[in-house]
Amino acid sequence: xxxxxxxxxxxxxxxxxxSGSSLAVGYWRDEALTRARFxxxxxxxxxMGYIDADGDLFILGRTDNVINTGGMxxxxxxxxxxxxxxxxxAQAAVVGVPDQRWGQRVEAHVILRSSGAADAAVLEAFCxxxxxxASFKVPKVFHLVDRLPTGPTxxxxxxxxxxxx
Length: 165
Prior knowledge:
three-stranded mixed beta sheet, 19% helix
């Protein structure tokens, strides 16, 4: 956390930080954000990822979409990739919502394909049977929806999903 550029071993997930001669020195007229994101020639991207043994970078998602459930860290995008592997799922978005017991509860918002037949129980069983997801990562609630909220640029508006629970 000192200069936030500690190198992690291959396969370890962390925030992606960038340094280089053409890197900006800060944000225009935003000193607070500059102090939070820039230090000692490094920029915190806000993206989470890892570098594999071959040196290839994989981006997993945003730091602001890390869900803390029962003290365990969950990357919503990881669960979304699993859900998208189900033949009935067209789109998926996973968020953490406040929960008295767990701190945050993992919830999935899913759009089914027009030909898709699945319900919450089927999707939960699919997630549990998938070898990549530990049990604490399996969503506690599945919302089957017709659309996911997006902003003016078409980007998923996760905040709206957190508020709809």
